[in-house]
Amino acid sequence: MRNILRQLIKIPSVSGREERLAAYIAKEMRPYFDTVERDALGNVICRKTGAGKKLLFCAHMDEIGFIVTFIEEDGFLRCAPVGGIDFPAAAYSRVVFESGRSGVLIPEEGTKPKDYKGDAFVVDIGAKSRAEAARLVKIGECFSLEGRLFSLAGSRICGRPLDDKLGCAVLMSAAREADTFQNDVTFVFSVQEEVGLRGARTAAFAAAPDFGIAVDVTLTGDTKGAKPMAVSLGKGAAVKLKDASVICDGYLAKKMASIAEKQKIPSQKEILTSGGSDTAALQLAGAGCRAGCISIPLRYCHSGVETADMRDVQACRDLVCAVAQADFADF
Amino acid sequence: MYPDTKELVAALASIMSVSGQEEQGREKLCALAGSYFDAYLPDPSGTHVFVKRCGREGAPKLLLDAHFDEIGMLVSDITEEGFLRVVSVGGLDRRILPAAEVLIYGKETLYGVIAAVPPHLQKAGDHKTAPEIGDLLIDTGYDGETLRRLVDIGTPVGFYEKTASLLGSRICGRSMDNKACCAAAILGAAMLSSEQMAWDLYVTLSAREETGLASGCSAAAYRIRPDAAIVTDVTFAVSPGVREDEGGKMGGGPVVSLSAVTDRGLTRQLLRLAQEREIPCQTCVDACDTGTNATMLSLVGEGIPTAVVSVPITSMHTYNEIADTSDIEYAARLFAAAAEKGGLRL
Amino acid sequence: MNQDWTTLSLLETLSCTFGPSGCEDAVADVIRTHVERYCDEILPDSMGGVIAYVRGDGTPLDGPVCPRRLMFSSHMDEVGFMIRSITEEGLLKISSMCGGDTRVLAGRRVWVGNESSQVQGVFGVKPLHLVKSEDRGQAVELEELYIDIGASTREDAEGVVHVGDYGTFASDFVIFGKDKEYIKGKALDDRVGCAILCSALRQIYAAGLRPACDLYFAFTCREELGISGARTAAYKIDPDFAIVLEATAAGDITGTADYRQVAHLGRGGAVSLMDRSTIYDRPFTDWILKAAEEEQIPCQIKQYVSGGNDAGHIHKSRAGVRCAAVSAPARYIHTASNVVAKRDIESMEQLVMAVIRRLCSKKEGRILRCEIS
After folding, report:
1. d(CA B219, CA B297)
2. Mean per-residue pLDDT, A125-136
3. Going from the N-terminus, what domains does chain B have, and what CATH number goes with each?
4. What CA–CA distance (Å, rounded) separates A27 from B289?
5. How many Å separate Cα B16 from the centre of its chain?
6. Closest Cα to residue B217, out of B299, B332, B317, B335?
7. Do C334 and C207 share a structural domain?
8. Of C112, C136, C169, at which residue does a domain stop?
């Protein structure tokens, strides 16, 4: 699993610029599915037909980042955030462009941390003039904080972007068990989640599943000074009941929790009061579906040091497989 | 033949329907309303769909939507000492929560009181601010261990207040938003016989309105594909803090929205119909947004012409919302008239 | 370029027509009358929009991602307001439908009414002399604003205006500046787009063009409210590609930092890469930029992330639609005095026609297919 994750982190995939990652994932998934297709927005849609219910699992490929909007006379770049950038956490960091070129993200001198937002930042790529910068970087090119992955104590890992390349890794690992899936299963690797759950919506419209299950990260209540929240790192796969964008289907949430219990997969229940997920888009698309989410607990989300526990990641993978194998005839 | 309005509202309000939990009420709701319709269609979105047919093949479909869900809370944590923490579902009014009585719908339905710090123990100035939902504790009278057996994270919590009578035709209690309008829709259907009808009437008592995405209503409408739709929801009644041009008068009949996001033709037809049938009715301007399911509903598929008809209530989103049963009955008459021959035209 | 300036006179008519969000009927009538002879069919639209259909030549290029249906979209509605109540004195109180800036309303002349008739009025304000000196620097609150239509009682007013009626700015269409290059009017956002689409339909007809794919020209309602008739139109049309023609806020005025100027008047249509509602399809956008470059049509890239448009709804329609957007740079949008440059309208017309001609050509159309697959 760690190896899959490492590969995914190497390929940048700012929202709207998931092309390269999509091509990689599509190639990797082909052996395990009947069909692997791309749709108009760029989602990777992998389908293995089966006799049971129509299940759609969805993890988003995109990561938060920036887009170049303007090149100054003196060679500095202006940019806009793509997705929910935490500017104080991103200041004075190395950033990497689509081309592989590096730069550093710097606030204008004298800006107070509370005023850190898009317009207060520039990127220094080392260019001395507008002409030089324009040769190296195009307006519209995206970049993000550099991807990285390292180990902390025990089974804890740290780096970025774990949101939601962890989810992609979970699905890619689960795909190896595709032979055992009893249901009609579609894996969607979605685009543009971080800018408004856009890809999942069109993918779910086309697939029209009975059950839609997002696989994404969630916040935890076990960091210093955290708001009370009953999710902790290391306590297993989190079955989402609610977040700021959605109230999950009660039947599906119960079903997933009971599958976890029966299969002795560590699990916990999640209520997230801020932040959304593709779950909402799955619930809304077309005639809608029963929607839920298997969440991977993650500390310091959207920073350069996102932290997760591999045991939770493993539990999420096991739960995805168990749900894909489960009998949904009781409904 | 028609159910009693107050009893119908009271019975509907007694069915727990915190957003996301609407399906649990299916049996009770069908027992209550099923006899006024030809069919009940379950919907995976949690929306309850009732159909009354006019009996003509290929008749146009009129969708009458009243959201069935109510604001409430979900248990988010159970403390060692036996208190519950909650998160809000929908727009709870934080100002009225301390000392409020609630029901906790666990393995058993438990009674609880939201903890309030008495004045003697407050710090100076505390009484001037409304508490954060995340800081509230619910006292159930159980110890932590027992409570954990009865209640789980995600267990819904609703308000306790049952429907009661005030002077005249006024009633109060929890969830007038939107059980008053659910009652109006059911009552409207009850007034109709298939021979009188020109439309097939689909009443959707829809899920998840209070969470703002209208997912329940849109999903059901996507399956039904109606030719026209009326959304019925509550609106502000003129009262202290609510100007005359911000709402409707209690007892003045249903309030028809004049809005840039609803269908002008359908709205005018409803107003004309009310006048012809001498049904008291008023209007209110909701320029950009009616604050109801109507916006999303009108955008379903190739688009659905949609109008909004509201019942005025006071104290919205508290546990003692006040409505006037005469407004509910007038609204019901307007809905019945709409589906009748000589009613709405395509 | 020596252009058929039917576009300009049509733009004048469109600009002066009453069409606030939710009451676009008169604009729709102008457009329908103008384009019905140039298209194969006008399709019904539940929101009150106009969809003009031009059939393709029936032999679409092969391949799964070759366009079958291309949708163009421009919105007919303009920012406006609604009459909320009428006072005893016959004055009209309003709800705004154009965001919060009351400074652009106070003192303005307006039209109020509905799809069949309108009357003129004026946004009155309390005389400056009676405003406390410390309040003179404050914008007038919406609650203090009223429209005076010359009525002296509520009954007088109710004879011509009703609660729930609509209103917009009254603003002449003025051509001004060096070489009469600039146009000022109301509702140029987005009647400019509408006029360009009308012009494209006229040119397709005049040249007898038959594109390889079906073309749909959607003139949509309620864009300014954010709910968008483009959403239901896109569902109906089910296109695989869409181009939104819009007007975008140009900030090229003295004192605005370079990087916040967004777009410049006179440099051609502004092509969007990303805004608050959409990340535009990159290969499709590049294909359009290449067409402009090869045919030497001025165009610019929108250099700031701001605003949103109908593409936000269209790209998420059904199983997804590849979208691009080209906007006329427009100063002072959402006021009575939008300012655009004639040259930009010309350039955008040329660009739209270049796109359409390329879709008529097997060779160029195939380029689109290959680059995107």
Report:
1. 9
2. 97
3. 5-70+174-339 (3.40.630.10), 72-159 (2.40.30.40)
4. 46
5. 12
6. B299
7. yes
8. C169
From chain C residues 136-165, the ones with a CB under 8 A of any chain B CB are 163-164
In C16-68, at which residue ranges do the beta strands (DSSP E only) sit?
A: 41-43, 50-54
Helix (H, G, I), strand (E, B) or coil at C112: strand
Tell me how far CA of residue B243 lies from CA of A103, B237, B284, in angstroms: 57, 9, 11
Asked which of C114, C139, C169 is the last residue of a domain, the reply is C169
Within a domain: residue C277?
yes
The CATH number that applies at residue C133 is: 2.40.30.40
C320 occurs within a structural domain: yes
Asked, for residue C175, whether it belongs to a domain, the answer is: no
CA-wise closest residue to A93 among A117, A124, A119: A124
Kindly tell me the number of DSSP H helices and DSSP E strands found in chain B.
Answer: 8, 17
Give the count of domains, chain C.
Answer: 2
Compute the distance between CA of residue B115 and CA of residue B131 in angstroms, rounded to an integer: 11
Q: Find out whether B227 and B64 touch, Cβ atoms under 8 Å.
A: no
Q: Which of A161, A217, A135 is nearest to A18 (CA)?
A: A161
**Which residues of C, range 74-113, sit inside 8 Å of B by Cβ?**
81-85, 93, 95-97
Same domain, C164 and C312: no
Cross-chain CB nearest to C236 (options B244, B261, B302) = B302
- Residue matched to tokens 């069908």: B30
Burial zone of A27 (CB within 10 Å; 0-12 exposed, 13-18 middle, 19+ buried): exposed
CA-based nearest distance C93→chain A, Å: 36
The 10 Å CB-count burial string (b at 16+, else e) for B98-132 is eebebbbbbeeebebbbbeeeeeeeeeeeeeeebe
Domains of chain A in start order, with CATH, are: 2-63+161-325 (3.40.630.10), 65-145 (2.40.30.40)
Torsion of CA A216, C322, C317, A292, to 10 degrees: -10
Q: In what order do the strands lie in the sheet with B61-67?
A: B39-42, B48-52, B200-206, B61-67, B228-236, B306-313, B255-258, B282-285
Cis peptide before B178 (omega within 30 of 0): yes
Domain interval for residue C161: 81-169
**C262 and C360 fall within a common domain:** yes
Q: Are residues C118 and C137 in the same domain?
A: yes
CB contact A23 to C (< 8 Å)? no
Nearest one of C145, C157, C159, C166 to C18, comparing CA atoms: C166
Q: Are residues C251 and C163 in the same domain?
A: no
- C285 with C360, same domain? yes
For residue A73, indicate whether it is catalytic: no
Cα–Cα distance for residue pair B341/B197, rounded to 1 Å: 5
Lowest mean per-residue pLDDT among A288-297, C16-25, C61-70, C317-326: C61-70
What digits encode the pLDDT tens for the residues B168-210? 999 999 999 999 999 999 999 999 999 999 999 999 999 999 8
With CB atoms and an 8 Å threshold, state whether A229 touches B152.
no
Do C287 and C365 share a domain, yes or no?
A: yes
pLDDT category, C373, cuts 50, 70, 90? very low
pLDDT in tens, B128-159: 888 888 889 999 999 999 999 999 999 999 99
Chain C CB contacts of A70 under 8 Å are 258-259, 303-304
Q: What is the CATH number of the domain that holds C196?
A: 3.40.630.10
Residue C181 belongs to a domain:
no
pLDDT tens digits for B318-342?
999 999 999 999 999 999 999 999 9
Shared domain for C135 and C227, answered yes or no, is no
Give the type of residue at A168: C
Which of A63, A193, A270, A306 is labelled catalytic? A193
